[in-house]
Amino acid sequence: MEAVRQLKLEGRTDVVSRLKIILAAPDIDADVFRAQLAVIRKLSPPLTLLVSTDDRALAVSSLVDADHPRVGRLDVSDPKISEAAKRYGVQVIDISSLASTDPLRHRRYASFASLYPQLQSLERRPLATAGGVGAFVFDAAGATVSSPFRLASGVVAPP
User: Fold this and answer.
1) Number of domains in the chain
2) Is position 44 within any domain?
3) Quick check: is 62 in a domain?
4) I need a surface site. Which of 5, 66, 90, 144 has the fewest CB within 10 A?
């Protein structure tokens, strides 16, 4: 994120416009991330965040950093998150429903990567909002991405 921010500050939109940025479980302070997005602004294609509310590694990181929330633990069911995602042109996808390969539940993105073919088909279909930005939940059972508000109670993480 900092490299992209620096490119924007240097006026290198020619480089930034060629990037497709996906952040998997990012260990970034939420306030720092918001400040970076203020400089970067909306990207096309939109920046994608893969988040999980029960990521224990990020919970420890938050605790060590004076209880500052981490971007990788954003709660997509929070209307403030959905609003901020639309404002900054970010696609936030909750992958909490995927099985984790580690006890800290930090490597879910590896499971998500194995579903890349389904993701490619999702990219060809517009998501619930203009430009595919907003907050969404990945439904591992159906391998779909949808609004957390459509899923009623959200996704229950595996034990």
Assistant:
1) 1
2) yes
3) yes
4) 66
Q: Exposed, middle or buried: residue 76 (CB in 10 Å: 0-12, 13-18, 19+)?
A: buried
Helix (H, G, I), strand (E, B) or coil at 138: strand
- Supply the pTM of this predicted model: 0.75
Q: Does 118 fall in a domain?
A: yes
Tell me the pLDDT tens digit for each residue of 42-63. Answer: 998 899 898 998 999 899 998 8
pLDDT band (50, 70, 90) for residue 39: very high
Exposure letters 121-140 (e unless 16+ CB within 10 A, then b): ebeeeebebeebbbbbbbbb
Domain that holds residue 138: 2-146
Give per-residue pLDDT as tens, 67-101. Answer: 889 999 999 888 898 898 999 999 998 888 877 77
Say which residue the tokens 């990207």 belong to. Answer: 43
